[in-house]
Each structure stands twice: as C-alpha cells, then as structure tokens.
Amino acid sequence: MRIEVENLTAAGEPFGHKYAAEEVELDEEGVRLVSDAAVEGRASRKGEQVRLRGTIRTEVEILCDRCAAPERAPLAVEFDTSFIPQEVEAGKGENVELLPEDLGLSAYEGDAVDLDELVREQILLALPSRHLCREDCKGLCQKCGANLNEEHCSCEQGEVDPRWAALADLKKEVNGE
Ligand SMILES: [Zn+2]
Ligand SMILES: [Zn+2]
C-alpha cells in the first residue's frame, strides 16, 4: 500500500491496512508471519516531511536457533517514522554528509510513502536477535540430527565431556606420555 503525500495534512489522516501473511516477505531465515498483519495509524505532513505513527499487529513463527522447533508469538509493533523525499536526500548529500538514516529519517520516492516496506522493516526490527525455544535447549545432535530435548541418540555415548578430556590430557602430560 502507498500513502499519497499530497492528500496529507499537518493534523494527520488515519490510515489502515491488512496484509495477508504471505504478502509480507521478511527474507529472514527461520521467521515467517502466520497471521495477517494489521496496520493502523495516522499519517501527517509538514512541508515535504511525512510522519507515520501507528501499530502493526501480527503473529510470527520463529524457529529455535538450536533445535529448529517452531514457536508462535504474537507481535505488536509501535512505530513512529518520519520520511523525506528521496530527491531532497540526494541533493543534500552533495553538501552535507548526513543521510536520512543519520537523522532518524527514512526516504520516500515520488509522491507516496511505501507502507509495505515500513511494515517489513518494523517487524524485522521487533524480532529478537537470538531465539531459543527454552533457556536450556539442548539442540540437535551434530552427528545424527536427533532432537536432544526429546531423545538420547546413540552417538552421544561415544562423546567425551570436554572437561574429562582436558583432565585426560593433563594425566598424560603428568605421566610423560
Ligand atoms: Zn530449541
Ligand atoms: Zn546423534
């Protein structure tokens, strides 16, 4: 969805849109939307600067970093983002070293703000950088891929606790082996 800049006022206009889950492509491994993303907010304009404020509500499925178990979580993201025209941004660049990002601003192209991109970005920002299904997730066996939270595979038996391995090395050293 695009929000036409021309129609906006300083007082602000309400806007709302519902994206189907598959419409929002996050391009992030192990994360996808599993429900609609409902966006509601207010768009205002001061000169050429556009400000969008509002909330995105959706539900995400995130895979555990260690065992890849899927988990669902509701997400409510509040945003307050200001945009300036892409052209102005380019013009400023010649004299000033500041980019829109440095000013905490985003850019819009032409005569409308791209809401799709804002929604994608805001959802990505709201995701945890590291995600475990539980604090002590044991992950998957490196050798056979078994989920070690649920089963003990036979590969485990041959493995030596690194602490014991260190001790064994120490013994060898002491014995001059
Ligand atoms: Zn896990
Ligand atoms: Zn195994």
Protein model, in words:
- This protein has 177 residues and is of the alpha+beta class.
- Helices cover 20% and strands 34% of the residues.
- It is built from three helices and eight strands.
- The chain has helices spanning 86-95, 115-126, 162-174; strands at residues 2-4, 13-19, 31-33, 37-46, 49-63, 70-85, 105-108, 112-114.
- The strands form two sheets. Strands 2, 3, 4, 5, 6 and 7 form a six-stranded mixed sheet that branches.
- A hairpin with a 6-residue loop joins strand 5 and strand 6 (70-85).
- The chain is elongated, with a radius of gyration of 25 Å.
- The mean pLDDT is 87.
- Bound molecules: zinc ion (2 copies).
- One zinc ion (ZN) binds next to loops.
What is the residue-mean pLDDT, rounded to a whole number? 87
Uncertain runs: none
The chain-level structural class is alpha+beta
What is the helix tally?
3
Give the % helix: 10-25%
Shape: elongated
Strand segment count: 8
Q: Largest sheet at a glance? A: 6 strands, mixed
The set of bound ligands, ions and cofactors reads: zinc ion
Radius of gyration: 25 Å
- The share of residues in extended strands comes to 25-35%
Cα(first) to Cα(last) distance is 72 Å
